[in-house]
Design goal:
Distance between the termini: 43 Å
Number of helices: 10
Order of helices and strands: HHEEHEEEHHHEHEEHEEHHEE
CATH topology of one domain: Heat Shock Protein 90
Strand order of the largest sheet: 1-5-4-3-2
Radius of gyration: 44 Å
Structural class: alpha+beta
CATH superfamily of one domain: Histidine kinase-like ATPase, C-terminal domain
Largest sheet: 5 strands, antiparallel
Strand content: 15-25%
Number of strands: 12
Shape: rod-shaped
């Protein structure tokens, strides 16, 4: 099994792509703010701090009046601490190195400058510069605010909300038309015409939807033309077949063998015509009804028992389901007829609930089909191998498959391990159907 980290759906891939773009955008925004705002703010702060430190050292090293020097220190709240022994000034021991401030201060005080930040009642910076390594200077740079600014929370929340809402609207706008196209394509695959889809969205999606509408209209027209053609041919063939039957009745007893052969041939032709009509009218216009599928199977079996012997049933308790009665009767009848025509009695019809689906199987006791080609057998006019005979038009299984797909189910053919061919119909099981009984 091939593994892929990318989502398989169009919606998932677009959502992931937009999420990656948003992350990259926020990262670039962060780096931009860090460089053009934070770094410049740090440089400005350290420029002012270092200038005041230089003035403090100038005042202590020159003959500036003492009252002026003291006034400068009190105004700036700048404190000078001389390191003695191993003891550290109060506050310096709980301060932490600040790399950004240190890098900015090096430009103004030289290499070897160290800057630490103390957070207590206010925010203080501690500076040790290389020309006076025995001194630490402490200076406040701002008031301490323990609360988170409400404006920052509102701004960040609005930015996140608008980004996610915009991404969702963009992906939804692209995904919705494609979802409608997928649904309409499945409808066409089941033989239903979904109608014209609304052509909205980006230009490319409008073009795809327009082409799909044209294709659906062409398929629908082709279906109607085929139905009309097959129905017309089937109808027109009834008249010559009827005349042949009437003519056969006038044959003498000496031609009894020929008479019976002609009657059998006309009956086969009549059955083929019925299959043509059943193929073009397979129940697509019939409405779904809730009913007992076991009761329907029993009705079909009783009707088939009048023509064939050796029919057995094994029906499990199944709650009422939604299905098209006439179409489902035709499906089960075709499977039973195929079992007797190409297989061998006894024929077992069973029903059960398996893996959240209703399962109906028809199994004969013939030789099965060698090299079973399931896909080909469900194509119109396809037949099994010669071991199972060569009668019929090859439309029976094609009709069965179309009816199964119309019910959202599948039909599967398998050679049974104990012999014979088994046709299994599976349709979705309605979990809430038990309450409808």
């Amino acid at each position: 099994m091939k593994f892929s980290i990318l989502p398989k759906s169009f919606f998932g891939r677009n959502s992931l792509l937009i999420a990656i773009l948003l992350v990259i955008s926020h990262l670039i925004s962060y780096l931009t703010v860090e460089h053009y705002v934070v770094d410049r703010k740090d440089r400005t702060i350290m420029y002012l701090v270092t200038n005041q430190i230089k003035l403090q050292y100038i005042g202590s090293e020159t003959d500036i009046p003492k009252n002026l020097s003291v006034g400068f220190s009190e105004t700036t709240e700048l404190e000078l601490f001389w390191l003695t022994g191993n003891s550290l000034p109060e506050g310096l021991d709980r301060s932490e190195d600040h790399l950004a401030y240190t890098e900015a201060a090096k430009e103004f005080l030289g290499e070897g400058t160290i800057v630490k930040v103390e957070i207590s009642d206010r925010i203080y910076v501690w500076v040790n510069e290389p020309s006076h390594p025995e001194y630490w200077i402490r200076m406040p740079i701002g008031e301490m605010d323990s609360g988170v600014p409400i404006s920052l929370i509102i701004f960040s929340g609005m930015l996140l909300f608008l980004s996610l809402a915009g991404a969702w609207l963009l992906v939804h706008q692209l995904h919705r038309p494609l979802k409608r196209l997928a649904f309409a394509a499945r409808e066409i695959g089941r033989g239903d015409y979904p109608g014209k889809l609304k052509e909205t969205g980006p230009q490319e999606l409008v073009s795809v939807t327009s082409a799909f509408n044209q294709m659906a209209a062409d398929v629908h027209q082709l279906e109607e033309d085929r139905t009309l053609l097959l129905a017309g041919i089937s109808h027109d063939l009834r008249t010559p077949i009827t005349r042949i039957r009437l003519s056969v009745e006038f044959l003498t007893e000496q031609d009894e063998e020929l008479k019976q052969g002609l009657i059998a041939d006309t009956q086969d032709m009549d059955d083929i015509i019925d299959q043509f009509i059943g193929y073009v009218r397979y129940g697509s216009e019939e409405k779904m009804e809730r009913g007992d599928i076991n009761e329907l199977i029993t009705q079909v079996v009783d009707a088939a028992a009048k023509q064939h012997s050796g029919i057995e049933t094994q029906l499990a308790d199944i709650p009422k389901q939604k299905f098209k009665p006439m179409a489902m009767k035709r499906l089960i009848s075709n499977l039973i007829e195929n079992a007797f025509r190409y297989g061998k009695a006894p024929v077992l019809i069973s029903s059960e609930i398996d893996n959240e689906s209703v399962k109906i199987s028809v199994r004969d006791n013939g030789k099965g089909i060698v090299d079973l080609d399931k896909a080909r057998l469900f194509q119109p006019f396809a037949r099994g191998d010669k071991a199972r005979g060569g009668k019929g038009s090859g439309l029976g299984l094609a009709i069965v498959q179309r009816i199964a797909e119309m019910h959202g189910g599948t039909i599967i053919l398998n050679n049974h391990p104990e012999g014979g061919l088994e046709a299994c119909l599976e349709i979705p099981f309605e979990k809430d159907s038990q309450a409808a009984i």
